[in-house]
Amino acid sequence: MSRLLSLILPMVLSVSLRTYSQNYLKIMPLGNSITFDQYTVDSRSDGVKISYRNKLYQDLRDAGYDFDFIGSERSGWNYLPTTPRDYSDNAGFPGINPLQLFTLIQTGLNYAVDPLGFCELPSSACPLNYLEYYNPDVILLHIGTNGLNSTTDADKYADAVSQILDAVDTYESEEGKTVTVFLARIINRAPDGSHAWTTYFN
């Protein structure tokens, strides 16, 4: 987590607020269980699941930034303020893979939790473009290892990440704005600290 945060923070701090229409920065932590902070077997309450988002909140606040975390999911509210903005908001979807995440940002539907598709938008107005609904200025994207079991999977997932980035480009063009995307290099899996398919995917 600390390595991921050390890469994200300086880049987020370099983003100028002058490029955005509102007076605060809308940051979307987007990805899978690392973003939400969910273990495979996890008895913790969602209120304590903060991932890298708590430290990022503290550092951005200490640097004087006016910002908010956005997304349909909530976790970490025991540590992150929920007023006047809810900083426990995020777009972390445990178990999701890049193919499913690409579908989700286009439609709001999460096929990782329901084979028929579960609508992640509060309006339940799916299909609806997830990015258009939340209107992010910055996206922190961490995605890749769920279901990654071969180089064939890695190739498919890399293509899906490219499609996600293309979808962000399309959203930018349609909205007439710039969205800064930070794409995380995937950390090798526990417990042995090495994973050949993750290395190939990166």
The overall number of domains is: 1
Number of strands: 8
Q: Give the helix tally.
A: 7
Strand content: 5-15%
What Rg, in angstroms, do the CA atoms define? 16 Å
The average pLDDT value, as a whole number, equals 89
Q: Would you list the SSEs in sequence order as H and E?
A: HEHHEEEHEEHEHEH
**Helix/strand/pairing category:** alpha/beta
Residue ranges: pLDDT <50 for 5 or more in a row?
Answer: none
Q: Quaternary state, please?
A: single chain
Helix share bin: 25-40%
Descriptive labels:
two-stranded antiparallel ribbon; 202 residues; globular; Rossmann fold; 8 strands; alpha/beta
Q: Care to describe what's here?
A:
It is a single chain. With 202 residues, the chain is of the alpha/beta class. It has a single domain (2-201), classed as 3-Layer(aba) Sandwich (Rossmann fold). 36% of the residues lie in helices and 14% in strands. It contains seven helices and eight strands. The strands form two sheets. Strands 1, 2, 3, 4, 7 and 8 form a six-stranded mixed β-sheet that branches. Strands 5-6 form a two-stranded antiparallel ribbon. A hairpin with a 7-residue loop joins strand 5 and strand 6. The longest helix has 25 residues, at 151-175. The chain starts with a helix and ends with a helix.
